[in-house]
Structures are given as structure tokens and as C-alpha cells.
């Protein structure tokens, strides 16, 4: 398994980065993934995807056991070899966010559709994922994913109300994501770097 004694870590997003935006194929990246693994360089996935999806993708890519960042930083999985390293999940959980935005949607008469509003077959149609992986895509722990169907003006009002609730909305490649204002990919990367340093050498 890659070593954290090396000075190099590679963080990569998935859709449109490691995975082809249209086909979700990772095989064009296989040669450099193999090279990084040969050089013992850890590849850390960082995405809006759920932890269940990330576990599945890690295994497919041969990266199982390495750290990853899921749900735009609302979930952080440490390396399986790190003793006493706790898995991070935002204090604002999925069900809390879901109930909050359902109330706001009704009060403000907003038009959007969340992954919770539909089943895995609809999610598969939206994403191009297989039905089994679409099931994983609906297993949010600390965020909500949605399709926005309203105006820019309504989005501004929605974002302002979310901020009052301690939440933020982030635009991804295909969807919008709502999570705790304290969370983000940047903060998650810095948090993982801090966890790397005490383990297996000096870290990055």
C-alpha cells in the first residue's frame, strides 16, 4: 500500500477529472494510477459522492484502504492503517438537512428535486450510473443533492435562507449540494494533511 513517508500526495476529484464526464470511465487514467501506485504515492479521492460510492470506486481503482473525502468534505475517511484516527461526519446530518430544506421549499414555494424525492432508477437516469451504484448515490450521511428547477433570483433567496440555518449550497458538475457551512473540500484536505503527519513518517 502507498506510504505516507513520501513527500507527495495526490488529491483528485472524480467526475470530469479522474472519471470521464460523459462515460464515467476511469481507464484512460489507468497508466498514471499504476505509476503512482508503483511509486508508493497515495491517491486520495475528493468528491461530492457519498462514502458508499467512494468505497466502491476505491475498490474498483485498486485504492482501497486509503483516505478519501466524500460529500464535498462533510465526510472524511482516514487511512485504515491510522490508529486512533476517527472518521469525520459533519454535525449537520443528512436527515436534519433534508427536513430543513423541505420546510424552506414549502415556505418559499421553491422548485427543486432532491435525490430523496426519487428512487434509484430515476437517479440512474439523471447520472448515467448503474442501478446498484445509484443506490449508493442516495446514501447521503451529511448532505443533500438536488436538481434546481427555479430561477436565479429564487436561488439567491434560497442560499440566503440556508446561510441563516448554518448551511450552504454548492454547485457541482451536474447537481447542487447542500451541507454544513463549516465543511468544504478545502478544509477537508487540510484536515487530512494534519492527520497524515503523525503517521508513517513525517507526512507531506
From TrEMBL:
One Pfam family of this chain: Hydrolase_3
GO MF term (any one): mannosyl-3-phosphoglycerate phosphatase activity
Gene Ontology cellular component terms for the protein in this record: cytosol
Keywords (A to Z) from UniProt: Hydrolase, Magnesium, Metal-binding
GO BP, sorted A to Z: mannosylglycerate biosynthetic process
SUPFAM superfamilies recorded: HAD-like (SSF56784)
Name by which UniProt lists this protein: HAD-IIB family hydrolase
Amino acid at each position: 500500500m502507498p506510504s505516507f513517508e513520501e513527500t507527495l500526495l495526490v488529491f483528485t476529484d472524480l467526475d470530469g477529472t479522474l472519471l470521464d464526464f460523459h462515460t464515467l470511465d476511469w481507464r484512460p487514467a489507468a497508466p498514471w494510477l499504476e505509476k503512482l501506485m508503483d511509486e508508493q504515492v497515495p491517491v486520495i479521492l475528493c468528491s461530492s459522492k457519498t462514502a458508499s460510492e467512494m468505497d466502491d470506486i476505491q475498490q474498483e481503482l485498486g485504492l482501497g484502504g486509503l483516505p478519501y473525502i466524500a460529500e464535498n468534505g462533510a465526510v472524511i475517511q482516514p487511512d485504515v492503517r491510522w490508529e486512533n484516527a476517527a472518521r469525520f461526519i459533519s454535525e449537520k446530518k443528512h436527515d436534519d438537512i433534508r427536513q430543513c430544506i423541505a420546510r424552506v421549499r414549502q415556505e418559499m414555494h421553491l422548485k427543486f428535486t432532491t435525490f430523496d424525492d426519487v428512487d434509484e432508477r430515476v437517479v440512474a437516469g439523471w447520472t448515467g450510473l448503474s442501478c446498484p451504484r445509484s443506490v449508493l448515490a442516495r446514501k447521503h450521511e451529511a448532505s443533500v443533492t438536488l436538481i434546481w428547477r427555479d430561477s436565479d433570483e429564487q436561488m439567491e433567496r434560497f442560499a440566503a435562507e440556508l446561510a441563516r440555518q448554518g448551511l450552504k449550497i454548492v454547485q457541482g458538475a451536474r447537481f447542487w449540494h447542500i451541507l454544513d457551512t463549516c465543511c468544504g473540500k478545502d478544509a477537508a484536505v487540510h484536515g487530512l494533511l494534519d492527520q497524515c503527519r503523525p503517521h508513517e513518517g513525517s507526512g507531506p
